[in-house]
Amino acid sequence: MSARTDSEPQGDIDATDATDATDDPDATGDADEATGSDDSDQAADADADDFDDADDFDDADDEYDYEEARRARWTATATGALLTLAGLAASLMRLGGTAPAFVPAAYALGAVVCAGAAFLGSRGRTRRALWLLIAGVMVMAFGDQAD
Q1: pTM of the model
Q2: What is the average pLDDT score of the chain?
Q3: SS3 string of 30-97?
């Protein structure tokens, strides 16, 4: 049964009769009409442009990134210098005592590694500087355990 109430025949319908109120050639419509969106292609193009202009997102954070990097460099440099001085002082103190020769050598070696970390930190290699600081402190701690 058909729900048609007009007097046209039930056969083939030409293209002019198939258009609906939105001038859509197919009578089914699409999801954009149901949601009230008028142009999904514009939204897709706008999303694609966001990925093309990735630099626009970074422009707002450039000043913050430079400040954060500068702070990381200063932190790595200052921490490396401080641990270098502490290692050298501990090495000199243990050198004059009754500790085995390995102990002041371990403190001195740890101080040299921390000095290298301070140098790398000043050059902006903060991740490598962090690992060198950890290694230097571990060498100093190993020497302290031998004492």
Answers
A1: 0.56
A2: 76
A3: CHHHHHCCCCHHHHHHHHHHHHHCCHHHHHCCHHHHHHHHHHHHHHHHHHHHHHHHHHHHHHHHHHCC
